[in-house]
Amino acid sequence: MTALPPCPKCACEWSYEDGALLVCPECAHEWAPGEAASGDAEARVWRDANGTALADGDTVTVIKDLKIKGTSQVVKVGTKVRNIRLTDGDHDIDCRIDGIGSMGLKSEFVRKVQSD
């Protein structure tokens, strides 16, 4: 049995293989075996329309009316979206909007709400 590398995010020593990826049972971080040495050197930074960095759990405001494909509904300007999740892909924000449901947004159409 070969020793698996510790988690590059939290340094947990109990990582395990799940298909082609390694998984940390403590922080749920997934990484490729060759990626362990580089760590978070290439961590992606998501930015809103003003260039402010976004993070999981942030609250954002929609800055443009957004038509929802396949329906007649529109997400209006000023709609506040709480507890966002950042993902890779074209629509890089997963969220739940009251009255509409779960959907994906592009970070270029939102502005981060500054907490006081």
Structure description:
This protein is 0% helix and 31% strand. The protein has 116 residues and is mainly β. The strands form five sheets. It has a three-stranded antiparallel beta sheet, with no helix packed on it. A three-stranded antiparallel beta sheet has the order 9-6-13, with no helix packed on it. The model has no long low-confidence stretch (mean pLDDT 87). This is Zinc ribbon domain-containing protein YjdM. Residues 4-32 form the Protein YjdM N-terminal domain. Residues 47-113 form the Protein YjdM C-terminal domain. It comes from Hyphobacterium vulgare.
Q: Helix and strand layout, with pairings?
A:
Layout lengths: L15 E3 L2 E3 L6 E2 L14 E2 L5 E2 L5 E3 L3 E2 L6 E2 L4 E2 L3 E2 L6 E5 L3 E5 L4 E3 L4
Antiparallel strand pairs: 1-2, 2-3, 4-5, 6-9, 6-13, 7-8, 10-11, 11-12
Unreliable spans are none
Total DSSP E strands = 13
Radius of gyration: 18 Å
Which strand order does the major sheet show? Answer: 1-2-3
Major sheet summary line: 3 strands, antiparallel
Number of contiguous helices: 0
Shape: elongated
Element-by-element helix/strand order: EEEEEEEEEEEEE
**What is the averaged pLDDT score?**
87
Helix/strand-derived category reads mainly beta
Give the percentage of residues in beta strands: 25-35%
Helix content: under 10%
Distance between the termini: 52 Å
Organism: Hyphobacterium vulgare
Domain Protein YjdM N-terminal: 4-32
Protein name: Zinc ribbon domain-containing protein YjdM
Domain Protein YjdM C-terminal: 47-113
